[in-house]
Amino acid sequence: LTQDDLKKIAAYKAVEFVESGMVLGLGTGSTAKHAIDRIGELLSQKKLTNIIGIPTSTQTHEQALGLGIPLSDLDTHPVLDLAIDGADEVDPDMNLVKGRGGSLLREKMIEGCCKKFVVIVDESKLVDYIGGSGLALPVEIVPFCWKFTAMKLESMFMEAGCVAKLRVENGNGKAYVTDNGNYIVDLYLKKDIGDLRAAGDAILRLAGVVEHGMFIDMATTLIVAGELGVTVRNK
Ligand code: DER
């Protein structure tokens, strides 16, 4: 099974939680894409009806539009029944790293308003601690004096061997700009930062920071697809 096969298996399993009439948070990324495709398919087969989708990115908005999924937003639906989204890392307490696809702010806004937040991953996303993959922990910041903010973030996690890098567009070296017109600084950690809430609060206290990619205690259900099968775990 390829990694994408596993993502699809986890995604389809999550869609089993979708019931007609639900208001859904539609995630962003290659795993969530499969779930949205599946929802579109069930709608076209009339196996699902009266679904409203709240997209977490312009990318997901476009995909859902193309599938004919009726769309809305948080202004109209401030409480959602269910959100389905992927993650970049999942620790043993179901805390997440998200945002390597650039959509962490809208994801966190929308997934914070759901009665149920189902996270779908292939087994490669499981880590012992947040940052443990050695890959990016994204932080969305305002473009104004981004170097200053990046430097403050890097020094904040000096003990964890943190390196902060401005995310650039593939190829042309220009700063990546989020759907919200902001920049992303990716933090690369060499050690466990310990108390995630304290770390997250410290990050948010920097005036130039908009939001960070740690989703602490937000997931209610974790679906993991691996070589040995798919597991569903509730918080
Ligand atoms: O960037 C994001 O937040 C994505 O949801 C990410 O966390 C998972 O993306 P993937 O399903 O393509 O690995």
From TrEMBL:
It catalyses: aldehydo-D-ribose 5-phosphate = D-ribulose 5-phosphate. Its EC number is 5.3.1.6. Signal peptide: none annotated. Keywords: Isomerase. SUPFAM superfamilies: D-ribose-5-phosphate isomerase (RpiA), lid domain, NagB/RpiA/CoA transferase-like. GO terms for molecular function: ribose-5-phosphate isomerase activity. GO terms for biological process: pentose-phosphate shunt, non-oxidative branch. Pathway: Carbohydrate degradation; pentose phosphate pathway; D-ribose 5-phosphate from D-ribulose 5-phosphate (non-oxidative stage): step 1/1. Gene3D superfamilies: 3.30.70.260, 3.40.50.1360. PANTHER family: RIBOSE-5-PHOSPHATE ISOMERASE 2-RELATED, RIBOSE-5-PHOSPHATE ISOMERASE 3, CHLOROPLASTIC-RELATED. Belongs to the ribose 5-phosphate isomerase family. NCBIfam families: PRK00702.1, rpiA. This is ribose-5-phosphate isomerase. It comes from Deinandra increscens subsp. villosa. The lineage of its organism: Eukaryota, Viridiplantae, Streptophyta, Embryophyta, Tracheophyta.
